[in-house]
Write a structure and sequence with these properties.
Radius of gyration of chain A: 25 Å
Largest interface: B-C, 63 and 51 residues
Radius of gyration of chain C: 22 Å
Chains: A alpha+beta, B mainly alpha, C mainly alpha
Strand order of the largest sheet of chain A: 8-9-10-1-11-16-12-15-13-14
Order of helices and strands of chain C: HHHHHHHHHHHH
Number of strands of chain C: 0
Helix content of chain C: over 70%
Structural class of chain A: alpha+beta
Largest sheet of chain C: none
Oligomer: heterotrimer
Distance between the termini of chain C: 17 Å
Distance between the termini of chain A: 32 Å
Number of helices of chain A: 15
Chain lengths: 499, 314, 308
């Protein structure tokens, strides 16, 4: 009798252990937009995609391109054909096979869908050929060095083509080929993903279930983590960093990202610009009156690394020759005087969130010492975009979340026709250099172009870079094996959760 | 009575039309192109152009209005510009959340307000009345988002008694759902309870002063019986109509409460939509809100007529 | 009792009776009524307390530069987030600014928001209500429908939409709140105007040939004013909370200018590290609003001849 009871007890506990699904709850800073990679515009969407979908290629923490759905690739001698060999035996989450035809269908869709946000990213592609079931060739209009990196992101994500027929369904019930499949989405509340057992690398993903919870208020997000309602959160507020460091139950894991925060000047966008700011000496004076280390200490809690260029140190294209940013109020005043000003009044536009607000007010104090009187003009996100496009600003503080390839951090911001060049800075030489860097094929060649451009840009200062945006995560001690990536995406390969 | 209802309904129609025009017009005047906000940080010009075409944003405003009205009459409230989710399904998802918050808030309000009002009226002029009045005024004067922040700090962060944010559906886990809603519902109900207490008190007072109550007292009925049986029942009429009025305050209070406690309800939907310039959502949600207002007020009018025998005969 | 036949709708229902009695005694008892009202007010301790609170807020706002030597806007990064002490009575905020100083200067924004919004609401709503109540017919129909339409959108939501449309700053927030509060005054004035219009002496005035404008100004307006004053005081309280709410949401007075609501918006991100940033602005809002509520209540009791 006793042996039977013991056996029963053992069986019960064993089944209970098996029945306990390992799940992780992740707190996000913003509510998720659309779950269709072709239409997605927000950063947090990409965090979900990192678990839901696979792209053709992926990146390592030091920004090297590695295989994902493609196992190898070659570029033709003239740089106009990029051929991929695809991984075999991969299935989509609805059971459909992944093959070259699927790749072609996805790229075609991303390029032709009227509301696709990937068109400019894929602008260099002329057409895609499915050579055989596992080989696909991208035929380009001109060489595009950034394409490979772009295909590691949303543009290269592969959805099951069978779902394309239902246009609305793609966003509300996405079917990809990633380690986790879509279960449920409650708008403003959460997205739930569950392990896809048919994934080609399923063994490396111990966690069974992911719940993404958007909680915009950083304090509430951290409070939820502390109380156990979350296991992990992204972008902890810098003011909470010291508290987290002192908490034995929490881990702070931070890495500098690919993006940056900067000040852009309205040099030539309409008539509302500030005449004084058209003089590059005035812009340089502004740059020299900023103490980025102080910003990092006081507001950033040490996690806002100062920036002097739009590339992170982890990038192979980072120009170490540029001087480190430093503050020199005397020189700034001298420059202003040389340009013919004692004081300059500047209307300063910025997004009214907590961190930006603090930084801008600190900037106001700092540049004030050199002679700049900043009149602060806070706006909300939509109004800021409008002001930026229409040139309704004099100086503006904003951010860019950053991309793997340097072209994406530089080209659209500094070329005459660049659509993110809100200040309408225009220098033909910079255009030539940045255009050339796009079509060169080796790192060395491209770096030469970027370094030359960096010299010109550092001299003309159309944008003043403040800090490289970090990705600070806070994890509960239960979470093991997490590695942060500079692109800020949460990759759960090898991540497990205790208990 | 049927005539009164028909009359009210007739009056409601032009009001609704006016509301729709008001909200539509207001949205169009909002600075900041919604399409730009939809295009995110990449600001792809091709995407912006195709979005404008898709949502008819380049056509004159009256045309857009007519197109929208036609859709609404077919039950199509449009699609969220930000997430591609139809507005009707957004409302379906979020309305129950706010309703749960509102109901729990009302329970707090009624549970605190009405007994306090009755006691206060019964002990008129005494210290209990005075104290209750001060408490009620305090409840009305505290900004509810501040109360929320303070409560989160004490109850969740310091004492770890209740969760500080989010929402759990009652079908998922009933008691956790109640627990999560407890603080927000209290915050919402506190201000309302205060107002309700004052209205109950004044309604009870005017009833208690009437002749037939005095007759009941003269007949020797116990004070409590008089207060509860006769006084309260007749005070119910204005109280019920006030509840209908408070429905509006409830919705407004829900906006702030949902913001503070990150509850994915109706109120948060509309605030986020205004900030994202998500036209379709704002229009749809405000229209639905106005409609429900009108319905609730109609219901209150009818209830008043039904409950008040004097009105019924006229 | 000359009450209109609609059910209890507004908080100042008792004032309807006040109008009736007041209208009856309008001609000759004005000075005596005023004196009686004042005595009644002074005897009401709660009302006096309310008046004192309001006075306190006014003093804070007007004499801010003398009451604190700190600059409410200048950031000081060496004294960030310090707890209350002898040097900083209410502590410092996330940019090192003295919270007490910001509280004092913030009183200006709140007071201004309250008073100006209500002025806007009254200046628009009062004439409209008078016209609607006095002339009736089509005029009444149009005005009432517009007021109803505005009233069927919850007050705060309308204020949010308007403030977002106008842009986030204090002036626009005041305009938004004023426009949102206006329909209540239209309704109230219209109701009182209807009641007074039915009085015999008004008919008599028409009979002897007095013009519309004359009648409105001489007879209707004075009887409408008392409940309007009561409602105005109560609405100032609502407007102060509305301004704080809008600033809290990021639609009113934006930083660095001090406003109790925007102080709370920033403070909520620092609740664990610096709770004093949240406590004091909230208490300030509470006391200001309580003051106006008590004042309004006291005015209502003082001006209501029924409660003797």
């Amino acid at each position: 009798m006793r042996r039977m009871l013991m056996a029963a007890a053992l069986a019960l506990s064993a089944s209970a252990a098996m029945a306990q699904t390992s799940q992780i709850r992740i707190g996000l800073q913003d509510d998720i937009g659309t779950l269709d990679p072709a239409r997605s515009v927000q950063f947090v969407d990409r965090i979900v995609f990192a678990s839901l979908c696979n792209s053709l290629v992926d990146i390592t923490p030091d920004l090297k391109i590695v295989p994902m759905l493609a196992t190898s690739w070659t570029t033709s001698a003239d740089g106009k054909t990029l051929t991929f060999k695809l991984r075999q035996g991969v299935k989509f989450q609805d059971g459909e096979p992944f093959n070259a035809a699927a790749v072609k269908a996805n790229i075609d869709r991303a390029m032709t869908l009227p509301t696709s946000n990937r068109k400019s990213e894929l602008a260099s592609i002329d057409h895609v050929d499915a050579i055989d079931a596992n080989t696909v060739a991208f035929v380009l209009k001109q060489p595009d060095a950034a394409l490979l990196a772009t295909l590691s992101d949303r543009a290269g994500m592969m959805l099951s083509p069978k779902t394309f027929a239902d246009a609305a369904g793609v966003a509300t019930h996405p079917v990809c080929s990633g380690p986790y499949k879509f279960v449920q989405r409650v708008q403003n509340d959460r997205v739930v993903l569950e392990k896809f057992d048919g994934y080609w690398d399923a063994a490396k993903y111990p966690i069974q279930r992911i719940t993404f919870l958007p909680i915009p208020d950083a304090t509430v997000r951290l409070a939820n983590l502390r109380s156990g309602s979350l296991d992990m959160l992204e972008r902890v507020a810098p003011s909470d960093v010291n508290a987290v460091k002192g908490d034995a139950n929490l881990k702070l894991v931070s890495t500098p990202g690919l993006g940056y925060y900067y000040v852009t000047f309205n040099i030539n966008n309409g008539s509302r610009g500030n005449a004084a700011l058209r003089d590059k000496r005035v812009r340089e004076a502004f740059d020299l009156s900023i103490d980025r280390d102080a910003i990092n200490q006081v507001i950033g809690a040490g996690i806002f690394p100062p920036a002097n260029q739009p590339l992170p140190k982890s990038s192979p294209y980072f120009d170490a020759a540029l001087p480190a940013p430093h503050r020199d109020v005397a020189k700034a005043k001298a420059l202003l005087k040389a340009a013919g000003h004692e004081h300059v009044d500047v209307e300063f536009t910025y997004p009214n969130n907590t961190v930006a607000s603090q930084i801008v007010q600190m900037l106001q104090a700092m540049v004030g010492e050199a002679g700049f009187n900043l009149k602060l003009r806070p706006t909300d996100y939509a109004a800021q975009l409008n002001a930026a496009h229409s040139g309704d600003f004099q100086a503006m503080y904003l951010g860019w979340s950053g991309r793997v390839d340097p072209d994406c951090n530089l080209h659209q911001f500094n070329t005459c026709a660049g659509n993110l060049n809100y200040g309408k800075y225009c220098n033909a030489e910079v255009d030539k250099l940045l255009d050339a860097a796009r079509v060169k094929l080796t790192v060395a060649d491209r770096k030469a172009q970027y370094d030359a451009a960096a010299k010109v840009l550092a001299d003309e200062d159309p944008n003043v870079y403040i800090y490289i945006q970090p990705w600070p995560y806070v994890l509960s001690n239960k979470v093991q094996g997490f590695t942060p990536y500079p692109d800020g995406l949460i990759r759960l390969r090898g991540v497990s959760i205790k208990g | 009575m049927l005539r009164i209802i028909a009359n009210r309904l007739l009056v409601a129609v032009p009001t609704l039309i006016l509301v729709s025009m008001l909200i539509f017009g207001l949205q169009k005047l909002l600075p900041g192109d919604p399409v730009m906000a939809m295009a995110g940080e990449d600001q792809d010009p091709q995407l912006i152009a195709s979005l404008r075409a898709k949502y008819h944003l380049d056509e004159p405003v009256p045309t857009q209005y007519v197109l929208w009205v036609k859709d609404v009459l077919h039950g199509n409230l449009g699609v969220s510009l930000r997430t591609d989710v139809p507005v009707t399904s957004l409302i379906e998802q979020k309305l129950p959340v706010t309703i749960q918050l509102a109901v729990m808030g009302m329970i707090f309000a009624i549970g605190i307000g009405i007994p306090a009002g009755v006691i206060s009226a019964a002990s008129r002029g005494g210290p209990l009345d005075y104290g209750a009045n001060i408490l009620a005024l305090s409840g009305m004067s505290i900004p509810n988002f501040w109360l929320g922040i303070m409560l989160i700090f004490l109850v969740s962060v310091r004492w770890h008694l209740l969760p500080s944010s989010g929402y759990v559906s009652p079908s998922e886990d009933f008691w956790l759902s109640i627990k999560t809603m407890l603080m927000p519902a209290f915050v919402l109900g506190a201000a309302l309870g205060a107002q309700l207490m004052r209205h109950t008190r004044s309604a009870m007072l005017s009833v208690l002063r009437t002749d037939y109550i005095r007759t009941a007292r003269a007949k020797g009925l116990l004070r409590a019986t008089v207060v509860v049986k006769h006084g309260f029942r007749n005070a119910l009429i204005p109280i019920v109509t006030v509840l209908a009025l408070l429905f509006g305050e409830l919705l407004a209070g829900a906006v702030l409460t949902e913001q503070v406690f990150t509850i994915p309800g109706f109120g948060k939907l509309i605030v986020d939509a205004v900030f994202n310039r998500d036209y379709a959502v704002v229009q749809g949600v405000v229209l639905v809100t106005a409609l429900s207002f009108i319905v609730v007020n109609l219901f209150a009018d009818v209830l008043y007529i039904v409950l008040n025998p004097r009105m019924r005969r006229s | 009792m000359a009450t209109p036949a609609s059910p209890v709708r507004s908080p100042s229902s008792g004032a309807a009776g006040a109008v009736g009695a007041a209208a009856a005694g309008a001609a000759d008892t004005l000075p005596r009524r005023k004196r009686r009202g004042l005595t009644k007010f002074m005897r009401n301790r709660a009302a006096v307390f309310g008046a004192v609170l309001v006075l306190l807020v006014v003093v804070m706002a007007v004499f801010a530069p003398w009451l604190s030597h700190y600059d409410p806007v200048q950031a000081s990064f060496l004294t960030v987030r310090q707890a209350p002490s002898a040097a900083h009575w209410f502590g410092t905020d996330e940019l090192g600014r003295d919270v007490f100083a910001r509280l004092l200067y913030g009183a200006r924004a709140s007071l201004l928001a309250g008073v100006v919004s209500v002025c806007i609401a009254v200046v628009i709503g009062l004439p409209l209500g008078l016209l609607a109540g006095y002339f009736g017919g089509l005029v009444d129909g149009v005005i009432s429908r517009v007021a109803d339409a505005l009233l069927s959108i919850p007050f705060l939501i309308l204020a949010i939409a308007l403030a977002a449309f106008l842009g986030p700053n204090l002036t626009n927030a005041m305009a938004a709140i004023g426009i949102s509060a206006m329909p209540r005054f239209v309704r109230l004035t219209r109701g009182q105007a209807l009641a007074v219009k039915a009085e015999e002496y008004v008919e008599g005035a028409r009979a002897i040939g007095l013009g519309h404008a004359r009648i409105i100004v001489r007879y209707i307006l004075p009887n409408v004013l008392p409940p309007i004053i009561v409602q105005a005081s109560l609405t100032i309280a609502t407007a102060i909370i509305a301004e704080a709410s809008l600033s809290f949401l990021g639609l009113g007075q934006l930083p660095p200018a001090p406003s109790w609501g925007s102080m709370l918006n920033t403070a909520k991100d620092f609740v664990s590290q610096a709770p004093w940033m949240s406590v004091f602005p909230g208490v300030a809002i509470f006391l200001a609003v309580l003051g106006f509520n008590l004042l309004g209540d006291g005015l209502r009791d003082a001006l209501d001849p029924r409660e003797s």
